[in-house]
Amino acid sequence: MTTQTVMNPPAKASAFLFPGDEQFWFETVRMFGADEYGGGSFGEVMAVSARITAGDYDSWYDAWNAMADRIASEGDRQFANGRRISARDSYLRACNYYRSSEFFLHGNPQDPRVNRAWERSVACYRSAAALHDPGIKPVDIPYEGTTLPGYFHYAGEGVRPLLILHSGFDGSAEELHWSGARAAVERGYHVLCFDGPGQCGPLHNEGLVFRHDWENVVTPVVDFALTLPGIDPSRIALRGESLGGYLAPRAAAFEHRIAAVIANDGLYDYGAPHVSRMPEAGRHALLSALRDGPVPQVDRAMEVAMAASPVSRWAITHGMWCFGAATPSEYIGKTLDYTLAGGIAEQIRCPTLVCDAEGDLFFKGQPQQLYDHLTCQKTLMTFTNEEGAGAHCEVGAGRLANARIFDWLDETLGR
User: Fold this and answer.
1) Element at 78 (helix H, strand E)
2) Which CATH superfamily is domain 17-133 in?
């Protein structure tokens, strides 16, 4: 979900948990928010947080992994005793706790803790998915000689609209359960969640990294979706979270079978914040150099920024892995292609909802930019700090945000 540019100003951390470490605080709010759809428990999040030292990645892993192991074992006992609902709920929380545990370890993707936690997270989610009624079906979507992992959330009999849902910089298809999928099912939508290249499943399993031309990911997903039961081909919506606020609009600009697109939060130009902080003198030459490969002076500057900022430390190390970059400057160079400028946003034909969180730490101003460039039917939806929904992607306020987002989608699709 989260994505951050190293040159953004520091975020405001909570004075309550992890003072001074805005990244640990944000990820904890993310865990609190998962509670709304069963992906966490407030008391468990508080208990884990009490055992974590701010900025200490090992303590983060140890605390979340220990809780995940305990809850997963409890789920196993519940299932063995025929307590299906209890087991379902335990497996769902354990899935999220395992996912969170390895979140900060991506500076060394070969760390065995990363793969173990990832595999356990997926296994727990699949156990939970099978215990839903109707069951949530794992799917493999054909894609360029391999497959993309995902889940089909079946909403019931009859022909229904479909929501295709994907995350962004660091989210997973499993996490989408509480980040939009079940909210859509409650409202009668079939949902197809998936991980594309650069996202958790393909990145962990095959080392597939991000690509900026996301239409080449979404088109095979739409092809696959049309083989699923009960899909209305005239009412297929696409929603992208976080970096998905660029990826989904990019896909919709070229894949015109999409009937509506939701960018949560909107993102017009992923590389722009890096560029805007570069000195104007020599900027053009520096950008050309970044497109050609690593730039040592930028790498040195990034090392200083990473030492000073918890957000930069995590974002750059994760970005290098998921973008397939060997150095910080190579990662920044790759982000420059992730833009809807040059008339791409203007090619979107379908109605588009651009979400804008007032206190967004990562994409400030970007939703408005995207909205201003759209020439299709468009809506800018702002979520405020006063209503508790001002964080990036409205984490911590999922029920409120989904109510507004899906009310818009119902009206847009004529439901």
Assistant:
1) helix 57-80
2) acylaminoacyl peptidase (1.20.1440.110)
Given the residues 127, 242, 312, 329, select the one marked as catalytic: 242
Report pLDDT digits (tens) over 306-364: 898 888 899 999 999 999 999 999 999 999 999 999 999 999 999 999 999 998 878 88
Residues with Cβ within 8 Å of 356's Cβ and at least 6 positions away in sequence, in order, are 265, 266, 367, 368, 371, 380, 381, 382, 383
Helix and strand numbers, DSSP H then E, in the chain: 16, 8
- Verify whether residue 242 is a known catalytic residue: yes
Token pair recorded at residue 26 = 């944000």
Total count of residues recorded for the chain: 415
Residue 307's CB is within 10 A of a number of other CB atoms, namely 9
| Contact indicator for 39, 96 with CB cutoff of 8 Å | yes
Handedness of CA 186, 192, 198, 204 (dihedral sign): positive
Domain spans in the chain, listed from the N-terminal domain onward: 17-133, 135-270+338-415, 272-335
Q: Rounded to an integer, what distance in angstroms lies between the CA atom of residue 372 and that of residue 370? A: 5
Q: Order of strands, edge to edge, in the sheet holding 136-143? A: 136-143, 146-153, 190-194, 160-166, 231-241, 260-264, 352-357, 378-383
**CA-atom Rg of the chain in angstroms:** 20
**For the domain 135-270+338-415, what is the CATH code?**
3.40.50.1820
Residue written as token pair 């359960």 = 177
Give the pLDDT score at 305. Answer: 86
Q: What is the pTM of this model?
A: 0.93
**pLDDT on residue 282:** 67
Please check the confidence at residue 5 and state whether its pLDDT lies above 70: no
The whole-angstrom separation of Cα 123 and Cα 75 is: 12
What 3-state DSSP class applies to 101?
helix
